[in-house]
TrEMBL record, chain A:
The keyword Glycoprotein does not apply. The lineage of its organism: Bacteria, Bacillati, Actinomycetota, Actinomycetes, Pseudonocardiales. Belongs to the bacterial solute-binding protein ModA family. The gene is modA. This is Molybdate ABC transporter substrate-binding protein. It comes from the Bacteria. Pfam families: SBP_bac_11. It comes from Actinomycetospora aurantiaca. Residues 1-25 form the signal peptide. Keywords: Metal-binding, Signal.
From TrEMBL, chain B:
It holds the Pfam family BPD_transp_1. Keywords: Cell membrane, Membrane, Molybdenum, Sulfate transport, Transmembrane, Transmembrane helix, Transport. The chain crosses the membrane at residues 7-30, 50-74, 86-107, 127-152, 173-195, 233-251. This is Molybdenum transport system permease. Residues 48-251 form the ABC transmembrane type-1 domain. CDD domains: TM_PBP2 (cd06261). Signal peptide: none annotated. Belongs to the binding-protein-dependent transport system permease family. CysTW subfamily. InterPro entries: MetI-like, MetI-like_sf, ModB_ABC, NifC_ABC_porter, Sulph_transpt2. It is found in: Cell membrane; Membrane. The complex is composed of two ATP-binding proteins (CysA), two transmembrane proteins (CysT and CysW) and a solute-binding protein (CysP). It comes from Actinomycetospora aurantiaca. Part of the binding-protein-dependent transport system for molybdenum; probably responsible for the translocation of the substrate across the membrane.
Length: 268, 257
């Protein structure tokens, strides 16, 4: 009896190995992406920790920045603003921190991890994402709360969910979402695959879906607490503080402004 | 008992520490004064309850579907058996997120099966508790099938053959001979499937979504909490570790008996 059970358990153990190999899907989305360096001038690597919503804009700017500064390699660490700020506080190597909310940036500032004052260089507002041609004719938040409309938002604990809550409050509407997603891309995905009729996402997310969803503006998107600020700062103790400051200036300069506006951000 | 070569001690110790130290680190990191408060918030309890309920439902579904599947794989002489087996084992090597996506494309509102259910019966599977069970079963069933098929093969067909010569019908043989003989394998397989379901994350969040009390199981809750309240996430992680240890203890106690 005991031997047989043991051999069954061995088979199980083999299965557990499989579990160990596969169970970690979905966690570490997009870390440490490199855009390739150049020979010649002294090689320097700038590490930028940036909010996931900045991925495409920053990758494009990274290439432009490398072309403008031969010998420089820009490495990105994209992720959730909370985790990025936490990482910087814990001493993770980063030269620049660019989060998607002032609150998360404040975490790093209070830990003395940001040189000087971080600057807010862009904002992003909410839009209702619906299927192309808006088949359910959703024109505002109240329409999103109609029975029979499957709506999806971010969880209140994450920035896009907090923004959604602020907008709901301003509109006097309480949504009953079918799901509260971990991040805004999750919401976009639900609408894009047709499993949800409407979702609260940012203008930049609608823009990035390239016509697969349609964005609906609504007045409460500009309500207090609903608009997302994008602060950027140079990390204290950075080995490349000058280069990091150049990056900040680059993002705020003409190239950065153009790329940000193209993606749907409002620049300052 | 043969002597263990000295060469193996160091890597064996390292391997053990690799698992033990992070878990010990978790225990140290827990905010003990507030522990009870953190693990008994309504959201945490809802997640724990949902995890246990869907885990049990998954285990039952794995038994009902995976049990017969293991018998077919171990005892039948179907053509293409190796192919059938490799399909069953696919979720073991597939990232769970991929599993979730495949389920979404099949059972989602625009998928072939999901679309049909939506049109004909007004049933929407994503965002529902059954979707959680479906996702968990997808990833957990191979664990039961693998253990049970192994047990069936180890047990061999001698007793079944004897039962047949004594005039027992195949179904009587199955219930009176096969099942009792492989019961330990069946038990450990079920426990493993339950444990795997309890830890399921990727397929669930991709396919079922995340809503308190409906689809937000313990791993999803921990992941969400880690964004805002790390202490809460750590406390619930410890709860999950304790549940996992209980599961292992339960299965090992049978072994030692």
């Amino acid at each position: 009896m005991s031997t047989r059970f043991r051999s069954a358990l061995m088979a199980g153990a083999a299965a557990v190995l499989g579990l160990a190999l596969t169970a970690c899907g979905g966690s570490d989305a997009g870390s440490g992406q490199q855009a390739g360096g150049q020979a010649g001038a002294p090689a320097r690597t700038l590490t930028v920790s940036a909010a996931a919503s900045l991925t495409s804009v920053y990758q494009q700017l990274g290439t432009e920045f490398q072309n403008a500064n031969p010998g420089t390699t820009v490495t990105f660490n994209f992720g959730g603003s909370d985790s990025l700020a936490q990482q910087v506080v814990q001493g993770a190597p980063a030269d620049v921190l660019a989060t998607a909310s002032s609150r998360t940036m404040q975490t790093a500032v209070q830990a003395g991890k940001i040189q000087g004052e971080p600057v807010v260089y862009a904002t992003n507002s909410l839009q209702i994402a619906v299927a192309p041609n808006n088949p359910k004719q959703i024109t505002d938040l109240a329409a999103m709360a109609r029975p029979g409309v499957i709506s999806v938002v971010c969880a209140p604990a994450v920035p896009c969910g907090a923004a959604a809550e602020a907008a709901e409050k301003a509109a006097g509407v309480t949504l009953t979402p079918a799901s509260e997603e971990q991040d805004v891309k999750g919401v976009l995905n639900r609408v894009q695959t047709g499993n949800a009729d409407a979702g609260l996402v940012y203008v930049t997310d609608v823009r990035s879906a390239q016509g697969k969803v349609q964005g609906v503006d609504f007045p409460q998107a500009s309500a207090q607490g609903a608009v997302q600020s994008y602060p950027i700062g140079v990390v204290t103790g950075s080995q490349n503080a000058d280069l990091a400051q150049n990056w900040v200036n680059f993002v705020r300069g003409p190239e950065g402004t153009a790329a940000l506006q193209q993606a749907g951000f409002v620049t300052k | 008992m043969t002597a263990v070569p000295r060469l193996l001690w160091a890597p064996a110790a390292l391997g053990w520490l690799l698992v033990a130290i992070p878990v010990a680190g978790l225990v140290v990191r827990v905010d003990w004064p507030n522990f009870l408060g953190l693990v008994t918030t309504p959201s945490a309890l809802a997640a724990l309850r949902l995890s246990l309920e869907t885990g049990l439902a998954t285990m039952v579904l794995c038994l009902v579907l995976g049990g017969p599947l293991a018998v077919v794989l171990a005892r039948s002489s179907l053509p293409g058996l190796p192919f059938i087996r490799s399909v069953v084992l696919l979720p073991l090597v597939l990232p769970p997120v991929v599993g979730g996506l495949t389920l979404l494309f099949l059972f989602g509102r625009t998928g072939p099966v999901g679309g049909w259910l939506d049109r004909e019966f007004g049933v929407t599977i994503p965002f529902s508790t059954p979707a959680v069970v479906l996702a968990q079963t997808f990833v957990a069933m191979p664990f039961l099938v693998v253990s049970l098929e192994g047990a069936l093969r180890t047990a061999g067909e001698r007793y079944e053959a004897v039962a047949a010569t004594l005039g027992a019908s195949p179904i009587t043989t199955l219930w009176r001979v096969t099942v009792p003989v492989v019961l330990p394998g069946l038990m450990s397989g079920s426990v493993l499937a339950f444990a795997r379901a309890l830890g399921e994350f990727g397929a669930t969040i991709t396919f079922a979504g995340s809503l308190e009390g409906t689809t937000r199981t313990l791993p999803l809750y921990i992941y969400l909490e880690s964004e805002s309240d790390l202490d809460g996430a750590v406390a619930m992680s410890l709860v999950l570790v304790v549940v996992a240890i209980l599961v292992i203890v339960v299965s090992r106690t049978r072994d030692l008996r």
